[in-house]
Design goal:
The chain has 167 residues and is mostly helical. Helix content is 61%, strand content 8%. The protein has two domains: 3-90 and 136-166, Zincin-like (2-Layer Sandwich), CATH 3.30.2010; 94-130.
Length: 167
């Protein structure tokens, strides 16, 4: 994943700061601290993308471009809690399961259509589109959890408003 975003950023001070904020969040709630997840936070060198994302199992990423636009520790916490929320609520795993189900449907359409390329192509496009992003309910669940986690770890959730302006 790091290679797709220019590798890891070489700025050790920024990575240490990212880790400090991330682990403060994680260690503030026993259910997370004692979970099976091994959370790690990664600063990506990507000079263009304003982005953050999480992979199932606790791997959280933020691009240097977004990191450098943030104006406070609370805003950084806001980015990280959202991604942690996706992991804690298993949104990535749900999306992967949904993708597998969609692939099964596409194969069924392929068999049922006798291999008609047009039908298979339309089914593939619909399948890709439907599994691209988290659903609105998952985004709201992650946001709601993020506010809770920010309050539990003594960050200011009102900074999420300024964060939305940056994003």
């Amino acid at each position: 994943m790091a290679n797709q975003h220019g590798g890891l950023d070489p700025d050790r001070k920024s990575q240490e700061y990212l880790d400090q904020v991330g682990y403060r969040l994680i260690n503030s709630v026993n259910d997370i601290k004692n979970s099976n997840y091994k959370f790690d936070f990664h600063l990506l060198a990507d000079p263009n993308a304003v982005n953050a994302f999480a992979l199932p199992g606790g791997q959280c990423f933020i691009t240097a471009t977004l990191f450098n636009k943030l104006g406070s520790e609370d805003q950084l916490a806001g980015v990280l809690v959202h991604e942690v929320g996706h992991d804690v609520h298993r949104h990535g795993a749900e999306r992967m399961a949904k993708t597998g189900f969609i692939q099964g449907l596409i194969q069924s359409v392929m068999l049922g259509s006798g291999g008609d390329r047009n039908v298979v192509q339309v089914a593939s496009v619909i399948g890709q589109y439907s599994s691209m992003k988290y659903g609105r309910d998952q985004e709201l669940e992650s946001d709601d959890f993020g506010v809770y986690l920010m309050m539990e770890s003594d960050f200011k959730p009102e900074e999420l408003i300024k964060l939305m302006d940056i994003l």
